[in-house]
Please model this.
Amino acid sequence: MGTIRLTGIGRTFKSTAAVRDVDLTVDDGDFLVLLGPSGCGKTTLLRMIAGLLQPSTGTIELDGVDITEQPSKKRDLAMVFQSYALYPHLSVRKNLAFPLTIQKLSKAEIARRVQDVADVLEIGHLLDRKPKELSGGQRQRVAVGRALVRAPKAFLMDEPLSNLDAKLRTQTRQELTALHRRLRATFVYVTHDQVEAMTMATRIAVLDGGRIEQLGAPSDVYDRPASVFVAGFVGSPAMNLLDVRIVSDGGVLAVSAEGVAGRLWTGDVDDLDAVLGIRPEHLEIVPDAPGAPGVRLKARVDLVENLGAEQIITCAVGAARVQVRIARDVPVAAGDALTLGAALERVHLFERTSGRRLEWVPDTVDESVLVDA
Model:
């Protein structure tokens, strides 16, 4: 078992609140990624779970046992640091064996566990080398192995791939994902890299300003972002976000702004300041057809970036900038005037003041309404 429950967790440094009133349950076998920009509180939250920082408020439970006051060495949790934290004077074998030596296990048991972990991570041929003789990817595997050899209730990982080059990062990411599937263990993983989050996580907690903005499966976070912040942070390129006005026009909601027009759902609503969101891959070049369902953007191409299999087009729509992801064989050049379209089901709306997601709810009794999601 490896269920972690945080209740009302907060941490203040002097007068600055780094983490604010977080309630979070990490289920046994979960691969939970704490995702967010620098300074959002994700590493502080992880270090509190590990026992390296004391919460200012709230409690932490591991399998129903309150561990809030327990020192880190008494928590059955293993931490993998960004800097690897290997002992440079010890061989890989002794680095792996170190936590078991502290537990005073027998030499035979230590040797068995070290060999088992080395086999799983395919580092058996490195056991007699020192860390300075290893590549970055090999050092990272040893750091993971030192955590794995303890057979803890959960693994805590603080941006473990950030020191690797792009190719090694992809390879190690795949290895960690496969390792999680094999062990069925609980992982709590901190990163600012949304690709890592989307490809590795069973659930993502997006943090901003010390609070959880959204918690859900990667597909939910991507397809139904709970706020403007999540919409703008998750996705590469990020979701296009445009300030618009929502008005009722003959029983249909209409969206308008400079260079933006569209007819949405049937119903009635008071004039509303909103943020319109459309992902770059959901925009396409369309004929100019006023009054068609969905959203139309009048755009001028500023930049075309060739990415090999596809191209990213950056356009001006009024005073806003919009990016479009399309196939490379679509002929587009800087300076072209385009009409871009998005289907109704690809449109996202957010309340401008709060930034929270709006959903269109049909009401068969009265009329349809826009409500907070």
